[in-house]
Amino acid sequence: MHTLTQLLSYVSLLGFVTVVSAAEPLKLPVTRDVWISAYPGEQDGNNGGAPRLKFKGIQEFSLLDFDNAGLRGKRVSRAQLWLHLESKDAPLRRMTVSTVASPWEEGTGSGYAKGTGASFRWAKPDQPWNGPGSDITAVVNSEAGTIWGFGDASPPDANGWQVIPVDPKVIEACADGRSHGVFVQDDVGSEYERDGEKFTWKLFPNRMVASRDMNKTVAPYFMVWTDGDVRQSPAPTKQTPHQTEKCVIPAATTKRPNAEKSLLTDLMGVPLGNQLYAAKNEAVTFFIARNENETVEVEAAGFKPRLFGLMKAAAGDSGDVLTDSIQAGRVVCEIYLPRSIRSGKHSVTVRVGKKNWPIELNVWDFTLPDQLSFIPEMNAYGLPVPADEEVAWYRMAHEHRLNLNVLRYGWNGRVADGCAPLKNGNAWDWGAWDRRFGPLLDGTAFHGLPRGGVPVDAFYLPLNEHWPADVHRHFNGGYWIEDAFDESYWNEFSTTAREFADHAMKKGWNKTWLQFYLNNKVYFKEQRGNWSSCSAPWVFDEPVNTQDFWALRRYGQEFNRAARSIAPNAVFRCDISRPEWQRDLLDGVTGVEVISGSLRPYRERIERRQAKYGTIVTFYGTTAPPTEFPVQPVAWCLDAWCLGADGVLPWQTIGTKESWDKPDALSLFYPARNPQDPGVSPSVRLKSYREGQQLVEYLTAYTSVTGQSRQAVADAVREFLGLEVDLKKKNSDDAGTAEYKPAVAQKLFELRDRIGAYLDSKHPKAYEQLLHWKIETIELPRAAIK
């Protein structure tokens, strides 16, 4: 076969063959190629003159082009890419070949030379791939109208050649001028070896093949078959620029006196003078200044003010944990304004020591909804209390307009005791599970709170790769999920997912997002020492390579088929830190995507998925450490909303007993240190998250009242606030902590005043819910090319 194709190619090049029959392939030598890298420090580098091409998962890949003039108008029936392997210990496995939507230059570099030809960041020197700040992922693998397909490379033959199947539509697009060559990527990325319980992780092996610059005998080429039919070439896809109407933030109308030396400041440190403003169904929270040993009291007819002491963890610390004792330290006051309160002015008296301070509380004539329009999700991996004490933690989150979501299984996939229903024979026993979690899902757990009766916004189901079916018993091995399990595994999984959905509908639990979420990572097996220590055969949480996204796709499809057809609030959730490598693999599959700081550079493609499939997007990261005035939670909520997110998620929120004595960035809920403490105490940062959530409700109501798009309002808010963020990361895998300049506090304060006063002037109707998410689940066909 190889000799025949070489002969056909030779004859073709001499001009003797002008028509290619269906039985005879055409050999098309590669005319330009370049290997590029996404690895930090190499993203501007070019290897267009290198003798080899490298493939290394999401880190390194190549661009190739070929003379396709003889294919124009032809219908391609089959195509292959032939590559000569130069790394015998790391052969090619499954590979993607995609069209490329932007012209590029080969360049002459090697060793990641800068300033010559294509690189990860540049199509050619000083020209980004698809607009300012873009990279090559903006013009391949389904972006900008591109087409891709993947298939398993053949084993190396006796001469070192490997053959990659190529989607014929990719070759046709090249022939029609809709693609500028092809993009070729390794889909496996990292590998592992298993010997019983022994597990060895191989991070991104270097897969090397010869480039056209090595020599002609091993240069890459394409083999293409056509069926002889002439077809009409489709018109190139045109990207329509996104147009957004202009929005202007309302003018300031609230008149505030000079408040530089104010007794009261808001949680961000902005002086309040003697005036407070808030909407109905809102909690207004502020600091009260006092001298050492002065007593503090607050009186307000018709309200029930609450006072907290702010306890310091160590000398010099400003304090974070709120206690019922106000004998020392700063004082925090909280006043909740019920839905039934009349709008207008109310009197509040703050007594510090022996002096009374009259405060004017102005209630604006609009109401925050009970159902959240933006969800700050307090993520947790278990709670440090017995099951019968957990409800207090959920109630604390709920009264702060937050959602506590607790994952109930660990790295080994084992579900914690009592956190999954029991099975007796062929029937499920829901009794104990319903008693424990039912009150969260029907809202009865929150009786007596401001939003009493509203259930939790989101809830992790116990479903995972190891429950209900034993992953180790069913797993056949391999990197590709279509061959990894027997049918009995999927039957057991789907049956259980269907049982959850059916039970939820029978109980009326239809207002909570019931989330199926896979948290584990295959490389945890190495960290913990053996194969069975972790249940995941792929990287499920923060997927890396195509094999990981492909596995998540299958799990999501199985869950959607089983559960979403019964319970529309049953959703597949994925946590994604690399949306640039997601392609279209999860389109119509995920209902919730929790995305890292990558939301910023890849915002536009994420927004397109939101618009098309109704996907809920949550921005995850880390809460800033305790500070005197916690601005970050408020600013992060506004920043996330402006980026199109539907919520924020600090990845860990549960502290330890030691958090009381040492400032802990992760502790938003403080467990008891001793029997005298409440079972759980809030942090002042928890109240800051509520401030951020409430301000987003203002903006949601503003878009509803004005009829302006969220995007237009978000753009105006971002400009008004002058939002500048510095993302602090400990390493590449760290979720990162968004830090904002202190000056943003005053601008956030002014924004709240302006939007609140505007809404007050319009007297909008009170609604239980302002925003209704509509998630669309579909199955887009996709399979490996044979």
In short:
The protein is an alpha+beta fold. It has 13 helices and 39 strands. The strands form eleven sheets. The chain has an eight-stranded antiparallel sheet with strand order 10-6-12-4-1-16-5-11.
Account of the 3D structure:
The protein is of the alpha+beta class and 786 residues long. Helix content is 21%, strand content 26%. The protein contains 13 helices and 39 strands. The strands form eleven sheets. The protein has an eight-stranded antiparallel beta sheet. Strands 27-26-35-34-33-32-31-30 form an eight-stranded parallel beta sheet. The chain is globular.
- Strand % is 25-35%
Q: Helical segment tally?
A: 13
Overall average pLDDT: 93
Helix proportion range: 10-25%
Q: What is the end-to-end distance?
A: 18 Å
- What can be said about the biggest beta sheet? 8 strands, antiparallel
- Record field, number of beta strands: 39
How large, in whole angstroms, is the Cα Rg? 30 Å
User: Which residues form runs of ≥5 with pLDDT under 50?
Assistant: 1-22
Structural class call reads alpha+beta
CA-based shape: globular
Strand order of the largest sheet: 10-6-12-4-1-16-5-11
